[in-house]
Amino acid sequence: MRYKSDIRFINRLFATMLVAVVMAACKNAAEEPEAPARPDSYCIGLYIESGEKAVSRATPAGDYDPGEGYENYIDVSGGDFRVALFTADKADPTADGVLIGQPTDIRLIPQDDSFTGSKRWLLEIEVDAFVRSMIHKGSCKILMLANWRNNYPSLEQGTRLSTLFASATPVDYSDGLPVPALTADDKIALFGICQYDDVNLRPNSRVVFDEYLHLLRALAKIEVYNDEASTDLIESVSITRHTTKAMPMPKGVTHQSHYVKGNYNEDYGPGPSLPSATELTEETEPAAFGKDPATGNFVIYVPEYRNIFNGEKRDDDKRARIKVKYRDKMVEYIDFAYYKTTVAADGSGSYSTVDTSKGTDGHFDILRNYWYKYKLKRNQSRVTWVVDVVPYAERYLAPGFGLDYDDGNP
Q1: DSSP strand pairing (2-3 vs 19-24)
Q2: Alpha carbon distance 408, 330 (integer Å)
Q3: Its pTM surpasses 0.85
Q4: Cα end-to-end distance, the chain, whole Å
């Protein structure tokens, strides 16, 4: 914990998940939080930034992707975000939190050129003397929600973090899934929680916490594109199954350690957080990808999907798979799976098969905040592809997670 007299030294922070650094402050420069409007209130500034590397995050080597444009959008003009403070226990960080209060005044200001795709934000909030008395010299958890279509759970005195998921309303995509080019209407729901210990709100000074607050997108991004050496080009791409509703937050999360594990296999949650059985609908009609006007790649944004059920991979007609159609009408189906390269016994070359030693019989679920990238190479009647699974944040996935493979069968 550090005290500073100005805040211009903050030149690194997060990257997409959207990483936030919390600061308590009183304004003495144009970009700093304003002083409290009332003598019994206290000013806190929350900086959110994407696109740079947060070098102190303890994750394996590699890169996460920062996201771009409306993938980072927060609906400020519509007031579609909430911030709240909850109790916390330094001795038991994962203990449930109880609502302390919400800011008495709040502003979210882009630090880049526009509200559309700003990667740096300043959140200015004021808390009253009661909230200060609850967190000063102690611990607190800060919750941020955004882009929930202004359909947030009621945050009343006594509300517990553990009850938020059950009271959250799914985002409905019955009218279609987002595809490029994204607009403000496609705003992706965000959720983040972080505990801060040894809080000390001192007058006329600022406290900077080193812990980041990670905001998770509620959707996954899937991208399919041609290898430069392909002999034929992709005509269309679709996903065979998807859910029509996305939970705006993950289940069972009351502390950042519940979804930031420090390794790629567990980061962001061990499995999909799905709506209740009465709300959950799996569409069997394939959903078409859109073509990114900037890259020409095929892209779609989807809610989480369960490809694994009761510890086993689901049948082909129950799993979400990618259907690729070429201009000569050849069709390939691609799974969400781990693969390994095998040399053919007859010396005809190498091919790839599902690596059943990983995941569940080689397969995995579609999870929020991941970017699944498929690079396809067409050679006569044979298609090979490279799979890359990229968490949205600071660093790219370590080599070996996605490998070249050639299934050859639907």
Answers
A1: unpaired
A2: 11
A3: no
A4: 55
